[in-house]
Amino acid sequence: MAAKRRKLGNPLALAVMVLLTEKPMHPYEIAQTLRRRGKDSSLKINYGSLYTVVQNLEKHGFVEVAEVQREGNRPERTLYGITDAGREEAVQWLSDLLAVPAQEFPIFEAALSLMGVLAPDEVARLLQERLDTLQVRAASARGGLEKLYEKLPRLFLIETEYQLHMIEAEAAWVRDFLLEITEGTLPGLVEWRAFHETGEVPEEYLKLDGGMFERP
Predict the structure, then answer these.
(1) Which DSSP helix (H) or strand (E) runs through 82?
(2) Nearest CA-CA partner of 19 in 9, 29, 10
(3) pLDDT at site 118
(4) Are 50 and 30 in contact (CB under 8 A)?
(5) If you compute the radius of gyration of the chain from its CA atoms, what whole number of angstroms results?
(6) C-alpha–C-alpha distance, residues 195 and 183, integer Å
(7) Residues 62, 83 contacting (CB under 8 angstroms)
(8) Do residues 42 and 163 touch, judged by C-beta distance below 8 A?
(9) pTM score of the predicted model
């Protein structure tokens, strides 16, 4: 089942609608609340783009002006609330994101698909560097998560927990693949090394349809 094409595709718009189900807020308060709850680890948040998102949500009828506040000589503050259409959109959008795996294109996957142009030893060095970084990142995330568990219910930390598991899963894969290169057990490693040592592309690589070494 494919996810429905939506009028707005920025995940920040979904976060705004979900937050406004709690109470009406002005854009600055929305941004501060998202940051305070740690949502900036999974969403790109800045005030300028957030204000544009709110305007787009209003244009599509998903949020509306709930109140205009004035305190003394301070500028007016416009509070926005979610509409019935916005609630329905938020529920349907979130349901799609949870249920339907999206085809994403992580840049690391692109790099892996093209790494043959580098020599095996160089790839091993670079992957070791990546693994070291991932392990530091995982240790930091794990420590931070354990502290947050003391203050917040797990429900509010689930995306951080997911991020940690993804870092650990990537580190485990990189570690195993790195061992295949360094121990010489990776299928095709001999041909890969030969290409970089001689400059000659192995005949079996030239036969690959659309492969990186396809003969012109």
Answers:
(1) strand 77-82
(2) 29
(3) 96
(4) yes
(5) 24
(6) 19
(7) yes
(8) yes
(9) 0.79
